[in-house]
Structures are given as C-alpha cells and as structure tokens.
Amino acid sequence: MPVGADEERVTSPLLEAGQSVLVAPGPDEPPWRMIVDLVQDGQITLAVHDDEHLPTGWNELAEVHITCLGRSSVYVIRVRVVRSGETRLVVETPHEGAVQRRAYVRVLSHVPASCTVLDADTNTFTSFEAEVRDLGGGGCSVLTDLTPRSGATVVMSFALDEDAPFVAVGRVLPRDALPTIGKPLTRVEFVLIRESDRDRILRFVLLSLAQHRRAELHPR
C-alpha cells in the first residue's frame, strides 16, 4: 500500500520486549500473533505464542509486515528478515520510510456496539444502528443508517470481552468526498475514553486478527 501524505516521515514506534505484535508475510496476508522477545544490536527477535510453530514457507521470506498497536494509532512496519526458525523470527530494526501510521485497523469479527448521537440544536440524543468496520485506540469507523453531522458528539458503548461494557465519547470527523455503496461510512475520533478501556480495545483488535489468521489456516 503506498504511503499517503499524512503517513510520511513517521517515526517507528518503540518495540519493547514482551510486546504483542502481528506479523504477516504481506500486507494482505493473514497475520501471525507474536511477541517481541529481544531488541538488541539493530535487530528484533520475535517469538511465537505457546507451542505454535511458524509456517515452513517463512524460512524463505525476505521481509515481513509488522502491525503494532500504539495508544492512539496503528503502525504497519515493513522490515527485512535476518533469519527465521521454527518458533522465532529475527528482523532488522525498521527505518523511518518503512512505517505507516493509521488511525485504526480493519476489524475482521463482529464488534458489539451501541451508539447515540447528540443533536446540539435540541439537546437530545438519538440512537442509531452502527456496524464497526475499523477500530483502534484513537477511534473507529462505522457503517450507519443515518449520517451524523461533522463535529457531532457520539456516545458509543462497547462490549468486547467478559467484563462489563464501557463507554467512549467521540467526535464525528469530516467525511471524505468519496463515492459510497450502501450505508455511509462515518469516522469517529475518541475524545473521552479511559486508558484501561483503550487497552481493552487494543487487546480485542489483536485477538480478532489472530483468530482470523487461525480461521484462514484451518478452515472448517
């Protein structure tokens, strides 16, 4: 994917030991969930989870794409592979031009969410149906039946895990002047969200992508 104007000169996020990342052989390939095991001497060692093993074909990879979730952005990093084993992958430290920053990442599983939008003229809230398409720590994009005005306040409730649902307050971002098919796509920036709830979003996104990878590898 070409780097857009708002993605230029992006500094690579700091990758630390113990951090979970998603690794894929290409931008459109199902990702593999891995952990940063060691960062040393210009190289990063990535390890698989539990008793998993990397696919045999990864021994021949020259580069991989790493998805790293930051506090409010999603980073996609293209790096060269130094060497690959059954359970570990050693890559070079990314250079500046290999990093893209995105507001959110495409979610490949259902996201339970309820939404209301504030009508500032009447001081009333209106509930609306929304299908979450993209999600990140800083916001989301949703397919909706109605089209909230740019700048409108949106209150969203998420039920992502076994814990109680949480609420985030967002602001509707300006809509891109692009043709749409079916429901309009609305982008929302979170302006009020607890850090612990932001962490829950990041964990949900990682697990969602990892589960999609397993489904791709082991179809029913």
Question: Which tags fit this structure?
Answer:
single chain; 220 residues; mainly beta; Pnp Oxidase, Chain A; Thrombin, subunit H; 2 domains; 8-stranded antiparallel β-sheet; 1 helix; 15 strands; 10% helix; elongated
Please give a structural write-up.
This protein has 220 residues and is mainly β. It folds into 2 domains: 5-102, Pnp Oxidase, Chain A (Roll), CATH 2.30.110.70; 106-206, Beta Barrel (Thrombin, subunit H). The chain contains 1 helix and 15 strands. It has one helix spanning 195-217, and strands spanning 20-24, 32-40, 43-48, 63-69, 74-84, 88-92, 99-102, 105-106, 113-119, 124-128, 130-136, 139-144, 153-158, 166-172, 185-192. A hairpin with a 4-residue loop joins strand 4 (63-69) and strand 5. Mean pLDDT is 82; it is low at 1-9.
